[in-house]
Write a structure and sequence with these properties.
The complex is a heterodimer of chains A (about 375) and B (about 200).
Chain A lengths: L15 E4 L18 E7 L9 E5 L25 E2 L4 E2 L4 E5 L14 E2 L4 E2 L9 H14 L7 E5 L1 H12 L6 E5 L7 H15 L16 H15 L2 H7 L18 H16 L2 H13 L8 H4 L6 E7 L7 H13 L4 E6 L7 H4 L1 H22 L1
Parallel strand pairs in A: 3-6, 3-9, 4-5, 9-10, 10-11, 11-12
Antiparallel strand pairs in A: 1-2, 2-6, 7-8
Chain B lengths: L10 H9 L5 E5 L5 H10 L2 E6 L2 H9 L3 E4 L2 H4 L8 E7 L8 H11 E9 L4 H10 L23 H11 L1 E9 L4 E2 L3 H4 L2 E8 L1
Parallel strand pairs in B: 1-2, 1-4, 2-3, 4-5
Antiparallel strand pairs in B: 5-8, 6-7, 6-8
The chains are: A alpha/beta (about 375), B alpha/beta (about 200).
Chain lengths: ~375, ~200
Amino acid sequence: MPHKSESENIGFVEPKYYVMPEGEEFVLESGVKLPELKVCYETYGELNERKSNAVLICHALSGDAHAAGFHQGDKKPGWWDDMIGPGKAFDTDKYFVICSNVIGGCKGSSGPNSIDPSTGKPYGLSFPIVSIGDMMNAQKKLLDSLGIKKLLSVCGGSMGGMQALQWAVSYPEAVASCMPIATTYKHSAQQIAFGEVGRQAIMSDPAWNGGDYYEKDHPSAGLAVARMIGHITYMSNESMEKKFGRVLKKEKLGYEFSTEFEVEGYLRYRGDSFVKRFDANSYLYVTKAMDYFDLQEDRKLYHAFKGVKSRFLVIAFSSDWLYPPFQSKEIVKALKMNGIDVTYCEISSDYGHDAFLLEFVEETKLVSHFLERTRKKVEKHK
Amino acid sequence: MIAKTKEGLRLDHKVIGDMIEPGSMVLDVGCGNGDLLEYLVTSKDVKGSGVEINENAIYRCVEKGLSVSHGDIDSGLREYPDRLFDYVIFNQTMQQVQKPKEAIMEALRIGKKVIIGFPNFCYLKARLQIFFGGRVPVTPSLPYSWYDTPNLHFLSIKDFKKFCADGGLTIEKKKFLTEKRIVRLFPNVFALNAVFQIVRG
């Protein structure tokens, strides 16, 4: 059982950087070449001699490479610290855990806020559109540089789950197991619709200025609204009822348009704190990448998983209406049709989509044993 | 319920294990905590997976290193391709399935052989309870009262044989059990549980 005690944390960690050596190329799915590639990453635990204990963690839309432990001076640990550390689900005494920031992001990897070598200024919208597959290929470059040929597992929630699925499909030989959590095999019309509303909120902020704002005021109002919409989709009706209900911030209704309800205050707070840590252009790029994600294409889904060799642990959450369990079940069905070894669990939770970050006790029960079993299988085959 | 053998093994699990060719592909439908599957994986070297509706039972299965899919039986079988498994097992679950005939036919599509273990409703004590007591029977293999039973269907050994004959299904193997031993004579009267192995045609 995981505990939040200090002793079980990894302690202080530092981000590292992979920079693509000169002479190498990085061609995106769109066909565009990225002149430079930088990937920010963190690692926890030790890579064993055979380099067979590596686990890649893929982050979600607003995540970053800082999945566990503390940065010097920070009070809060990485975004999945409940799951990663000694004795935790991703046990750093056994596994070498890697998490990298996606390209198109804004937390150290190449993205729209990186400097374009041809102008000496941030790319802005001249940064090419990237896909989930491109994010994976950037991770592949990083893993190649670390000498890791085969991952023991690739795991992620939400957009991280899309990357995990993409890995299993694109590099079947390089992935012993795959754990897509609270995710989908393709963005549905509804999911694209939420993406578009977020983008429109940003792009209709005059400060956005066609993406060229890095030396001026940032489109904070637009990005905050995008984040507010996002947060609504991450919660469930039950969790919002429990957390806020109709509770007021003041004694009584003021008959005015100030922030009156707790839920309004919460969303504004979330929006405001997000703009301090996230780049608006990145929000456009990363949501676009998710909208482009479609493993199925114009065929029956099980065709997408032909040739896949990983074993799977698929997890969904009962109250998640952004990435509902039926989408995970479709994945499970397609895997079964290919005779692939799959375990599926729908964890009952009121937390909505956010559950993948919060229900770590249940996730730990599944992930720790699944990983252990995978490790034994891999060792048996050596 | 069902007593254990000297080795601590449930008698019905041993009976099922004895029916299965080592090394086969097995699906346990309604696998519960995974005890039967674990036994088959460790002792019979099968490649096993399960279907189970209860979330906590899923955690127990995963703890045992088993592959299990969270879902109900009635829809869970449709997801597998034809003849993927050598054996599909329903042990003590058939009586809880919404549509047993559909489930058995689906199992015979995805599996070459189907093994079904179920409590015999026409066990002697049950007959006596109905006849003399005038009450719906409560027996070691059917331990529930009418108001809390998970069982939707009640059948006897004779009923199952008739079902197979009517459906053109062949019974390849059969074993009848009391709490502690195998029954050979008049099983429809003396057996608490029955285990059948059936195939199409």
